[in-house]
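thought: fold this chain, then report.
action: predict
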Amino acid sequence: MPSTTAPQKTAAARREQRRVVAATTIGTAIEWYDYFLYAAAAGLVFNQLMFSPLGTGGATIVAFLTVGLSFLFRPFGAFLAGHFGDRYGRRVVLMVTLFAMGGATALIGLLPTYETVGILAPILLILLRIIQGISAGGEWGGAVLLAVEHAPDNKRGLFGSGPQVGVPAGLLLSSGILALMNVIAPGDAFLEWGWRVPFLLSIVLVFIGYFIRMGVDESPVFAQIAQRKGTTANPVKTLFGKYTPLVITAALLFAGQNTVGYMTTGGYIQNYATNPEGLAMERGPVLLAVTFSAATWMFFTLLAGWVSDHIGRRNTYLIGYIALGIGAAALFPLVNTGSLAILYVALILLTVGLGLTYGQQAATYAELFPASIRFSGVSITYAIGSIVGGAFAPSIAAALVEATGTTTSVTIYLLTMVTVGLIAAVLLRDRTGIPLGPDHEEIQSKGHFTFGQNRTEKISAK
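observation:
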């Protein structure tokens, strides 16, 4: 009996691990489909249908501001999700965020336009975008912790890259469906009704995500904490009371990547390339180029997770930020040629650095914070990094071009943020393989930086 029981348990554990990775990847892809769909529509649709009285330039800037506005509510969602996730589990939070995001997205597809109801239309749009922001603030932390805390110690980067892949997958799905609707409803039909279909499709995707996530077990780390009744009464207070410098540094580690990523996920390149007063490229081919680049971003994200298990999270970040700097420097000089083929080259080159600074992030963040406050630490840090980085990146880019008349200023802005992310990567110690369970909170709570105390301490999973 013992000789067959052990292999059976091992096989069952592996099946559960595969289910978790699949569920978190697919669920995250659905959530970010909703989020990125809005960002793309902001520069292609909402600037014309919701903010038209502001004029072409003003409407575009305000439309992108509504993209950034939701980021201001991400910390609120992260605080809520972190508090309840550290006290009641990762799984229940993921269910709530899934329905909140999907419901808000579907309602956006039913909104009247400014021409129909006046200022009520943009007000309702902004309210629904805020709900999306609150939901996004809690989604990512729960998804990555389920994946990483289920993973074998030597495969956390690979397992954690699953929900990370869900982000470019959401971009691929949203851009792909918008491109398809551009074919089905070309020209004015796209503005009249075609743009609504991808938003309404979110209802179907939410139920798919729900049934997938229903079959996933709670994180084993949280199960141990709950069994021992070791949950923290106020995890957010503990987080900021003890780990504020770590939160800030880790947020900046993400901010550099997020700023550059939001040139496409925030809809800026789509708007810039198709602007009739600028490059005037066709909407459909540009959307297809973004869709294709999302596929290459997925590949390099997965690669980064796998590589980080072998050379460490920190080394992967250093390589990734160098690649990202090259991609950011080349982006606008290539896009400004107005060539569709070179647009593909620019976006694909950008995805190399985007992936290599993103795939390892789930494992990196999970290994930074003690088990009892990990959900709060991961979610809030990610939310702050999103605000500093991607939140207003499209608006800043649009304002810089409006003020200077050139994209050189945008390139300088992107390279500045890449440098910030690179510095943060240099400052943070590599904690690859650190034990994640509640029995090891002492080692989890110290030795985060490459300077100061514990700088020579070796982190071991043993």
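thought: worth noting. Residues 454-458 have pLDDT under 50 and may be disordered.
final: tokens above.
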